[in-house]
Design brief:
By secondary structure, the protein is α/β, with parallel strands linked by helices. It contains twelve helices and eleven strands. The strands form two sheets. It has a five-stranded mixed barrel. It starts with a strand and ends with a helix.
Length: 295
Amino acid sequence: MAPHRWAIILAAGDGARVRDLTRDGAGLTLPKQFWSPGGSGPMIRWTLKRASRLASMDRIVTVVAAQHGRYWKAALPPEILARVVVQPENRGTAAGVLLPLLRVSGSDPDATVAILPADHAVEAEGVLLRALHRAFDLVERGRRVLLLGITPDLPDPSYGWIVSGHPEEDGSRPILSFREKPAPSLARDLYVGGAHWSSFILVARARALLSMYESGAPALLRSLARALPGDLERVYSGLPSLDFSRDLLERATSDLRLLVVPPCGWTDLGTPDRIERWVGPGEAGRLEPAQAGAV
């Protein structure tokens, strides 16, 4: 694998919206990224297998929450546990991305990183992986930040949508605007008009992402860049809660490009409706380990 390719797995969320569904065999609620639909293994392991197809195991960094310690210590293999980054508390996705990004850039200033949320299910894993490898290739050839846009299969208003321009020679597209959780009528118009779902999966130069923070969230960048490991809890308690998409990506469209992912059965399992569509109403689950990417 290319020496400067890294993957960051985002696994620190609480999954509050789906907590009534993400339960273990004893009926206890689990954070969704550690839930195992249909015995397919926890979702975080699906993402870990995806990451291992992009970067070597010593270049995979996972951000987790301190309060979920008993879950991630059980779910992650030792070589991944050695590189976890632990958030003291949830201060929004902007901090959740920046904390592991600083770890990666400190180890490898020339890093190119894939940001991978740990709650995505994909039926055709190979399709998504080909898009991710293509994104790495384009970034290594000069693109700064590529956001993967999912080809939608229905006008779902609970997703964020991306409106883009015509593809250029390398296949990437300029991003014209974001539409976060549009009204159903607008979602239908976006669907018919060829817009794409925002996946929150991106590939970028680490330096380009840090520049985005310098412009869009300089105080957050300064606070976390200067924080010592033993002082992280105090620093986090004073951080603003910022959203990576709204407060950074949407303000930096000139630095972004969209790379469209062909239909692949992608789902962000972040709402009860999506989980029920994925596993089937009332079913324990339908995923097989090979589909889910269990390791």
